[in-house]
Amino acid sequence: MLLTLAFRNLWRNRRRTLLTLSAMVVSAALLILALGVFSGMFKDMLASATEQYYGHLVIARPDYHQRRDLFAHLPDSIVDRLDLDKASEITGKSPRLRSFGLLSRPETSQPVELLGIIPDLERQVTSLQQQLTAGHYPTATERNGALIGQGLALKMRVKPGDELVYVTQAADGSIGNDLLIVSGIFATGDSRHDNNLVLAPLAWLQQVLALPGRIHEVAMVVAEPMNASQVADRLTKNLPENIEILDWGDLLPEMREVIAAYDVSRMIIVTILYLATGLGILNTFFMSVMERTREFGILMAQGMRPWTIRGLVLLETLLLGGIALTIGLLCGAIMTLYMQQVGIDLSGYITPVTYAGGTILPRLHAVFAAGNFLVPAGMLLLVSLVAGFLPANRAARLDPVVAVRDI
Amino acid sequence: MDYLHLAWKNIWRNRRRTIITLTAIAFSIMLVQALHNLSAGVYAGMIDSGVRAGSGHVAVYHKNYLESRDESLYFMDNNLITEIEAIDGVKQVLPRLYIPGLAQSSRESRGVVLIGVDPQRERQINPFLKALPEEAIIRSAASRDAIVGSRLLDELQIKPGQKFVITAQHQDGTLHSELLYVRGVVSSGMKNIDSSLIMIGRERAGLLTGSPSSVHELAVILSDPDYEKPVHKSITAILGTSPDIEVVNWERAMPNLANAIKLDYASQKFIFLIILLIVTIGVINTLLMSVMERMREFGVILALGSKPRTLRGMIMLEALTIGLFAAAIGSLLGSLATWYLVSVGIDLATFVPETLEFGGVVFDPIMRASWNPGWMLQIAFYVVGLTLLAALYPAIKAGRITPVEGMRHH
Model confidence over A252-311: pLDDT tens digits? Predict the structure, then answer.
């Protein structure tokens, strides 16, 4: 009964209710869209560091990540011994040997980080094969085919098929150098990878470094990056002494903190926006209560309790919040879906931006995350209730004798 | 004057409604002004530390060097430094040479980009060197002293005072090596700086490539960022005779930083837009309600001979009064908030990582605002404009009332 009454009351001044409703819908829908785009940026940022380089989980000697010690190596049989496939969340694993050196041509030499990889395994972990601008991803049959970044290729003035000399210090103290042939060129948009990273066959690098049968790390990816630390905890138990597993949060502590701090900043944005919306709701319901002073007086004179009056007004605001929420969530979801499917390309206006160890790509692209809907939804209902509280109190405190005289 | 008086009286007929509406407008003005000033202050800080470690407010390069970072695109300083330093507003000119090479200790090797600097000049400006004691600074431009990033030092497994070898390509195409000693250690907090930085004297760096007095970059630091345009012009005039050398501003030399700021500000503007949209809808609502309540009154006024135009004008005048009043209160609150943010600031140390990198610079967790009175005034007027825009529909509505209809309304 009260619900029907509340609903009818809402539509007694249609124009006013619709305007208030539209302000609520606009704030909720645009907020959901903005949060979806922010989440998209974070996802790009995380992907740039993990799917283009680290992977989500890395197995290595303790401290290897800190010092990149050439001698902190593992036997390459570790990949099979670990029996990783039991952990079904893991969708790819790639053994890698890492080396730092100079890539040389007669005109120029450039410092590089070179990863020795097995192409078929590495492509399960990193997505560089999707970002080729020339040539092809190295194949298992190429003895010394290399994949290099676009920035590096530009500086060295090389194209697929060209030869390069790689110079570095080998494990036996000698200066190792050997020939590489450019197979392909990738462009991630992240200058730190594009100017510096080279992938070459694992067996070739093992020979150059005089480290046959050794690797430095096994990089892995999991289906859901946010669960990486749980998977790491499970795997730790099966690992031999002197080998540790790190998740992306350990590798990129700044990024983990930035992503965690997003919950706080989302709350701040939502609160600020809804304060403005809340004042609109407050105004509407004060007007609506003041107009009905006489009516409330009559209801009370006939025996309606003050708390029922209070409940009625609160029910009206809550109902309005509920309607706004339904439409707002729907509009927000449609806009987020559009930004997820189509997005906006900004590469004509800005270049990629580095943030907390990752890279934000020059595009607006949304992702769906439950929190981006739940927080604005919950807060909207809360704001409706809080904004309805003062008018409801005012209505409940009316003196029937005075109120019925109001015209 | 009579109309203004009437409008003022009219808006206070429903005090509570007007106060709530005024609060909403003033609150949003305050918010937008304070947030903008805060961002502007943070951006200015980022730019300042960015240009000191990087390209300077304006920088001089060989043409195409920026795009290719090709080390063969150097130029000779030929008194350029002294000439640029003489320009009004220039605080310091930092000559730098960038040489890709291989750093080797007895155990490890790392690819690095060697930076050849003028140690005394660099020390006064570069934030990476400011914290270092005098005995950690490179003694002369020709010495074998090197300042090395902390992480790189750890990776090479050497300690301050110990030696390492740097190998780079000479102009003639052969690889040359130089022995260097670690003198100072830089710990900037940015992983890619700490794991790759090696700074040496520019003459020693020049010896590696075979041209001791060459430079790749002249980073020009200004005493005030506002001098950017005139200094840019003066340097262009000095360079007039050497067509291969160009002057660029920091936005072009450091696109990462410039775009980080652009991106951050764009997302903030979107939030501003939503706030102003919501407030505008609120104002429409309030004014429309006040028009609907006064139908009867308007009918009487029209019957007495007023023109619909006069009614429309009065509604617009009421909106203008509300807008101006809210703009004044909002700007006052915005100024108070800015004053607080300028003198005290916000300490985000508990929310963000200590060494958060954004756009290539370390983000200072203590955010401080800066004053931008022109912009504050602009946003205040913008909101007054929005209030007038919001009044259009209610005003037109009031103008369409016929006397008979209006007077029947109760």
Answer: 888 888 888 888 888 888 888 888 888 888 888 888 888 888 988 998 899 888 899 999
The answer, for B368 touching chain A at a CB cutoff of 8 Å, is no
Cross-chain Cβ contact B356/A258 below 8 Å: yes
Question: pTM for this one?
Answer: 0.88
What ipTM describes this predicted complex? 0.85
- Rounded Cα gap, residues B29 and B210, in angstroms: 60
Statement to judge: residues B184 and B281 lie in one domain: no
Among B198, B233, B250, residue at a domain's last position: B250
Same domain? B73 vs B106: yes
Question: Residue A377 has what pLDDT?
Answer: 92
CA distance B240 to B234: 10
Summarised one tens digit per residue, pLDDT across range A325-336 is 999 999 999 999
Does one domain contain both B361 and B329?
A: yes
Q: Which residues in chain B touch residue A289, judged by CB atoms under 8 angstroms apart?
A: none
Q: Does B111 touch chain A (CB under 8 A)?
A: yes
- Dig out the tokens for B331 from the structure: 């700007």
- Phi, psi (deg, nearest 5) at residue A96: -135, 145
**Are both B78 and B225 inside the same structural domain?**
yes
Confidence check: pLDDT of B1 > 80: no
Q: Is B64 on the interface with A (CB under 8 A)?
A: no
Same structural domain, B340 and B204: no
Last residue of a domain, one of B228, B250, B272: B250
Residues B230 and B89 in one domain: yes
Please report residues of A whose CB lies closer than 8 A to that of B282: 23, 276, 279-280, 283
Which residue of chain A comes nearest to B23, CA vs CA?
A: A279
Other residues' Cβ atoms within 10 Å of the Cβ of residue A67: 15
Q: A245: helix, coil or strand?
A: strand
| Residue B91 lies in domain | 57-250
Interface contact flag, A102 B111, Cβ < 8 Å: yes
Check: CB of residue B214 under 8 Å from CB of residue B206. yes
Torsions phi, psi for A248 (to 5 deg):
-60, -30
Would you place residue A358 in the very low, low, confident or very high pLDDT band (cuts 50, 70, 90)? confident
Residues of B in Cβ contact (< 8 Å) with A109: 100-102, 168-169, 175
Partner residue opposite A70 with nearest CB, options B101, B108, B256:
B108
Helix (H) or strand (E) holding A218: strand A217-222
